Structure prediction request, 587 residues.
Amino acid sequence: MLILLLLLIIGFFVVSQENIKIIFSGIAIFLIGMYFMEHGFKLFSGGALQRVLEEFTNNNMRSLITGFITTTIVQSSSLISIIVISFLSVELISLARGIAIIFGANLGSTTTAWIISSIGFDIKISLFAMPMLIFGVIFRFSKNNTYIGLGNVLLGLGFIFLGISYMKDGFDTLKDSIDLASYSIGGYLGIFIYILIGAISTIVIQSSAATMAIIITALAGGNILYIDALALAIGANVGTTVTAVLASLSSNENGKRLAFGHFIFNISTGLIAVFLIYTLRDLVEFISPFIGISKDNYTMKLALFHTIFNLLGIIILYPFISQIVKLAEKFITDKYQKKSKPLYLAQANIKIPYNAMVSIQKETIRLYQFAQKAILHALSVHTSQLNNKEDIIKVVNQNIKIDTNLDNIYQKELKSLYSDIIEYALISQQNMNSEQSQYVTDLKHASNLVIKILKDTRDIQKNINFYLNSKNEFIKEEYKFIKTELVTFIFEINQLRKQFDNDIDEIEVSTIIQVDKDRLQNLDVIGNGRIDSLIKEEKITSKMATSVINDTSNAYEICANLLNVANILFIKDKKLRELGELEDETK
Prediction:
């Protein structure tokens, strides 16, 4: 009802007031420009933006600087926030680093005011827009994503300049019919009212950049007083917290914690700016001559004020990032996650190829973790007992049985997760280039192998449990050997996973996989003639021989598939993966 009423009010002013119509048209065109720029940079960067954010965020200070630089380049703190939320959802960066990036992005977003105010309002800004719009449309006809992205960026810039031009013209004509500056309220009451107006405007428009563009054009046209413009800028900063909170509602707990950190920063910075508004105004007056800002250039002074109070917020709050993280984790706790529910397949990542790949990789590793635990239980081995290689003999020789129904585990816990991985992968591949899509295809293959390993273990589980309790020591030893090999290979893959988490050299991982593949020959009972000898010497029956040959063959395939899964999941380098694939005996 409130939205309908707001639309009716806007409709009335648009129809009845020509200058209001021009201003609203400018705002609409500006927002379209921001949309095109944001989506253009996603395509144009081709994942480079994500790689930069991942590469240069290994400590809080570098994260802050990276957030500032990337936001300054792409002119969209919301895009950076979306990427950071997607990184947090797949645990590529810590929450502390994410908050540091947001601090930097807040400072980077102040460059929008510098750009708009430095262009100047005495020249016809729309002249810059036309060539950008023309070339933007031309580039969009390309089939190459990079050129399409570049076209979107140019269209975005063109629409932004055009929108500013419309807003300027609207405010120029508005001043002739109504002097908004005459309605200014002095003192802190007026400041709080304008802060509220700035915050509400940003919440409604969902863009602090657009709000700042309106404030700057209104100030340039003399429609508002300088001190009121400062209060509006503070309000715009505060209003972005609502945008961040709304964006985090569909994200996981870490995304909500990031929004909480964003909220703490913007509210704290806003309060600091309010209490020091007159002091900061005087500081701006003092600094302006030293950086070439003339006495009557209030739009540039507004940009300087916007930068100073955000920088002040960073200086004050940066040392307390760890405390903000603890506070966020206290207020927003982790929910229990069922095995059947995906943990990393965030919808926010699905259209960002690099992040989507990492999401699928992490979820497939998670699928493997659940499957290997179920397999070890099927072999009557507790995962908590398998801490080092020396434990393998102990757990194989212990006489215990863990009742494990692998069919139930698959149907109730893993089938749904496997289906979600495949579905997510298929959708995300639509936004990927051929190389990215191929790796996701490999990840789908790895997921399928994990399920196959589970089912193959189910097929030999009964015989292993039966013959390990046989009175025939010879068949018992053969099944103990099968169990030992299976547990050993799972232990080796789990060690590789730990090394992968610690960023071990991939060449070393590949070497370990190749060595383990050579060990597969231990399971070739027909080739080594061991079973033939047992039959000839009548140490086992023909029925026992048939069972052990079939089960050893299954164990060979399980171990080979375990290595193939490791080759896909734990090696990012394409050439090293291909080295493993050439020897992939399951393909």
Observations:
- The two ends are 61 Å apart (CA to CA).
- Residues 582-587 have pLDDT under 50 and may be disordered.
- Residues 372 and 490 are 7 Å apart (CA to CA).
